[in-house]
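User: Could you go from structure to sequence for me? I need the amino acid at each position, not a summary. Structure tokens:
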């Protein structure tokens, strides 16, 4: 356990208080023992001073303080003794367990217990009187009891530290989850915004180009009508999306809805047919699904967006000809296919971001399905084909 080499203020105060108390007891003539090898009373001040000097290093050098303190305590037994020396030694024993190494914290309580037992047995065998047990009790109070207290305090501190670390890790994981959730939500919002608005803006761009390039009043009026219709529809969808983001918890009838289903597919195809008529495209819907009830909401939303994005791409890139939307359900798989005549033009009718195909692939991947995009039918047809898995228990 790493500690600063600078003495702690509290430890310095403990040492000073212990030394002052010992001097007070010495001046009053209060000693723990009678005449010993060193009968002069002043000799007891030597172990007292040494023990007090060890208190400031009880945290930074706990093992050294305990070893030297033990020697001072043994030396104190050959003098008239001081109660302050014994009390400060118990503090050094306690500090050695609390601030020492983990190995020392395990060994010191065991060692002091064995010393207590040995002193007790040796005293009874030597003195052969019941009073000999008091030596064992005193030894236990000076060595084993403070060591046991240190173990309890150390375990409590380590448990508190572990709890703080777990709390910090939990907070860190929560922050990471929040950041991931924000990123995922932003990606979802980007997909929804692109899929909802791109179709309308593409139609606006194509028909505005036609109105500017063709000097015909009827054509310009028709193009402006389509532009106005798509502007209104795009604005309404934008408002629905913004309303959904502002009120994510709305449960009433007025709660905004920005999650279209396949029930709205006829309206989508009809709108695409109107937008694409001036480009020579004819859009048709072939719904081969059996009437088996509604599909899971994520599947319906993904299928709708795939059709919407594919029709937008056809409006931008396809050559004049049929654009066919097919829906089929076989077992637990919903197949969505959109095919159009592969255009030979060098660039699109309207600019795009290139994010449409990426968005479709992301939606299909999240549902565990697969998608194929590219030329088909000998290279004359551009086809988008997605297979979306449907759980059996998710619909009636």
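Assistant: Here is the amino acid at each position, in order:
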């Amino acid at each position: 356990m790493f500690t600063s080499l600078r003495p702690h203020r509290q430890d310095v105060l403990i040492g000073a208080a212990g030394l002052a108390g010992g001097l007070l007891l010495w001046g009053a003539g209060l000693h723990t023992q009678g005449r010993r090898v060193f009968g002069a009373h002043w000799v007891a001040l030597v172990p007292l001073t040494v023990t007090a000097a060890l208190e400031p290093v009880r945290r930074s050098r706990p093992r050294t303080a305990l070893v030297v303190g033990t020697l001072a305590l043994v030396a104190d037994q050959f003098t008239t003794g001081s109660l302050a020396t014994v009390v400060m030694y118990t503090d050094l024993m306690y500090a050695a367990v609390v601030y020492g190494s983990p190995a020392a914290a395990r060994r010191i309580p065991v060692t002091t217990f064995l010393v207590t037992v040995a002193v007790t047995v040796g005293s009874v065998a030597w003195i052969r009187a019941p009073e000999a047990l008091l030596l064992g009790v005193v030894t236990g109070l000076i060595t084993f009891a403070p060591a046991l207290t240190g173990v309890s305090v150390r375990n409590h501190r380590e448990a508190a530290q572990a709890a703080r670390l777990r709390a910090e890790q939990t907070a860190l994981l929560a922050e990471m989850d929040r950041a991931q959730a924000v990123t995922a939500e932003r990606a979802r919002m980007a997909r929804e915004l692109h899929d909802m608005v791109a179709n309308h803006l593409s139609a606006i761009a194509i028909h505005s180009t036609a109105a500017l390039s063709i000097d015909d009043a009827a054509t310009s009026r028709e193009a402006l009508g389509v532009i106005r219709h798509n502007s209104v529809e795009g604005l309404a969808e934008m408002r629905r999306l913004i309303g959904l983001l502002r009120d994510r918890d709305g449960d009433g009838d007025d709660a905004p809805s920005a999650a279209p289903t396949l029930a709205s597919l006829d309206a989508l195809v009809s709108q695409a047919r109107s937008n694409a008529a001036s480009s020579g495209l004819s859009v048709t819907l072939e719904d081969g699904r059996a009437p088996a009830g509604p599909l899971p909401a994520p599947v319906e939303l993904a299928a709708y967006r795939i059709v919407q994005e594919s029709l937008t791409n056809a409006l931008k890139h396809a050559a004049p000809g049929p654009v066919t939307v097919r829906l089929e359900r076989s077992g637990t798989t919903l197949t969505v296919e959109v095919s159009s005549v592969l255009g030979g033009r060098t660039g699109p009718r309207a600019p795009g971001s290139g994010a449409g195909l990426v968005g479709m692939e992301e939606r299909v991947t999240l549902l565990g399905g697969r998608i194929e995009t590219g030329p088909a039918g000998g290279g004359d047809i551009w086809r988008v084909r997605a297979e979306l898995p449907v759980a059996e228990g998710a619909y009636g």
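One structural detail worth keeping in mind: The longest helix spans residues 132-213.
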